Amino acid sequence: MTSTDQQSFLSVRDLKVHFSTEDGIVKAVDGLSFDVAKGKTLGIVGESGSGKSVTNLTILGLHDRARTAIDGEILLDGKELLTASERELERLRGNKMAMIFQDALASLSPYHTIGKQIGETYRKHTGASKKEARARAVEMLKRVGIPQPDVRVDDYPHQFSGGMRQRAMIAMALVCDPELLIADEPTTALDVTVQAQIMDLLKDLQQEFGTAIVFITHDLGVIADIADDVLVMYGGRCVERGTKKEVLRSPQHPYTLGLMNSMPSLDGPVDVPLSPIPGSPPSLLNPPSGCRFHPRCTFAEKVAGGFCSTEQPALEVVAGRGSACHLTPDQRREFFADFAVARHN
Ligand SMILES: Nc1ncnc2c1ncn2[C@@H]1O[C@H](COP(=O)(O)OP(=O)(O)O)[C@@H](O)[C@H]1O
Ligand code: SF4
Ligand SMILES: [Mg+2]
Does the chain have fewer CB atoms within 10 Å around its N or its C terminus? Predict the structure, then answer.
């Protein structure tokens, strides 16, 4: 049984997010489905431009509604978010769902102290007094590992280091005990040591609060560290999903394999050269026909009938596990065996 079989807290069904632009329609997300259970982490991985952030902003209701055509369903604890009013979304954001981003400075105001900002979020959703809110801010700063929280609570964001600002943003996101946390590349700008500390912090907080986490990253190493389940995105679609173990030990999609072979071993040096995926991610304004990965795929010619460039492979999912590729299981076993999958085991 995979963790996606457990009762779903966040359920996304056939989500499509299309932007109207001067040049045409950008199909940023084009038929995406996934589930996240309480207390579990779904890692969404893919190169830049694959539609990860658009997915996250749509869940939070922070997309530009005027220029965006959205289709599908997003259920949070049974509540449909796509038809919810601005007011309902405002209430849910911060309270039931919260977010952290790569750039803490963008979500913290430079004009107010850290404590005031964490406290205001708390007051907005709980009606607590200023004094209670301040005490809560100190408690949260302590919980995310800020030294001398009762002093630092009166600092402004610029007085914090990058890693501390990231912690403060996490404190602000978690101040109302949200049940869903969306983390969009929250450690990408940090050095490796601080990144590891922040990841440990998120894991501890998840243990403590039972938060469901959607963790968005372009880095499979981060996925290996934090995810329970993995969804691999390419060109606005899911190309592969499964438990972390399934996806990292036996990838089924050439794109996942490509990602794995383009990054260093998770367990230190292995004597296999890195091989970046040739080419670059597709334009979502004018995506390739058939399989969106076909212009970059080294296996496309192995598929009989040239279907890769004409037929879009269906994503077939059984018990949370599946991929979208025309290769047969036998072909995969044969071709993938030569690749350096071992480096990640
Ligand atoms: N508001 C918008 N209008 C038009 N295109 C957009 C908008 N936001 C994102 N896009 C496009 O959607 C695609 C997916 O973007 P994004 O979700 O940010 O990718 P990722 O987070 O995976 O790097 C990109 O091609 C991006 O240019
Ligand atoms: S469908 Fe074809 S082009 Fe797409 S990933 Fe599979 S083999 Fe490669
Ligand atoms: Mg992004």
Answer: N
Q: Helices 130-143 and 162-174 meet at what angle, rounded to 10? A: 130
Whole-angstrom distance, CA of residue 295 vs CA of residue 279: 8
- Output DSSP code: residue 151: H
The domain ranges of the chain are 108-170, 251-344
| Ligand 1 interacting residues, C-beta cut-off 6 A | 19, 21, 26, 28, 46, 48-54, 64, 284
Cβ(293) to ligand 2 under 6 A? yes
Q: For the CA atoms of 220, 221, 223, 228, what is the dihedral angle to 10 degrees?
A: 120
Three-state DSSP class for residue 23: coil
DSSP state of 132: H
* Beta carbon of 292 within 6 Å of any ligand 2 atom: no
Q: What is the pTM of this model?
A: 0.93
**Residue (of 126, 203, 209, 142) closest to 174 by Cα position:** 209
For every residue of 79-99, DSSP letters joined together read EESTT--HHHHHHHBTTTEEE
Q: What is the pLDDT of residues 104-162, one digit of tens each?
A: 788 899 999 999 999 999 999 999 999 999 999 999 999 999 999 999 999 999 999 98
Ligand 1 centroid distance, CA of 234 (Å): 12
